[in-house]
Design goal:
Layout lengths: L19 H37 L8 H20 L5 H9 L5 H25 L1 H5 L8 H23 L10 H20 L5 H10 L7 H21 L7
Helix pairs in contact: 1-2, 1-4, 2-7, 3-4, 3-6, 3-9, 4-8, 6-7, 6-9, 8-9
Length: 245
Amino acid sequence: MPPATVRPPYQHLHKAHLKPDNQNEHESRDASTMKNILIAEVIGTYFLALIIGLCALPPGAGDFTPLAVTIGLAALVYACGHISKAHFNPATTITYFSAGDLPGKAVLPYMIAIFISAILAAWTLPLLYPEALAELVPIELEMGKTLLAECLFTFILMWVILNVAIAHKNLGNGFYGIAIGAIVGAGAYAVGPISFAAFNPAITLFLCIAGFIPWSAFPLYCLVQALAAVAAGLLFRVMRLANPS
């Protein structure tokens, strides 16, 4: 996501050979960088989930909900991408790791921050629309269609993210936020009536807590979303799109 001239936000979190007198400085820089990353992820994930929930609840945005999510997500990606690469989604963390772009020690902190943010957003909804939540009925799911929809559109979301954020030929582009927001919005229009268009384990958790989808679907959603993320990351890595050499 950042321009080619900007160092990726977690680049120096990778293991490195350090001289003893530089060790403390390196560790301090790592801690400061990770703190900023997690703050950005908390803010971005929280407001993404809140936008989805508030737009989906009546009176909300109705048929314009996917458009509102597209615009909101694009803005959040541009705001936070230079700090944390704007994951806002454990599947994104998984796909970056699978593509070889994220060090293993950063995976768990990202996921904890993202899931906590989704929970906080779910707890905020009753403060704003208690009456609408009280009348909310979970969507009825045909599990075969639902899981297929989540798998396909999580995969294509991850594929778009990888190719606009870290693909060698797209480095320094200014359209990454628009592209990511657009594929989420397109997916929401395409399969929203089938699966509620989560494409994200943290948003799935948010939707379960709020009552949009039944809790019984949560582990299956997360499983197919994670598998799709791994598949996209490994394919991207095999194709050497980040580093052709």
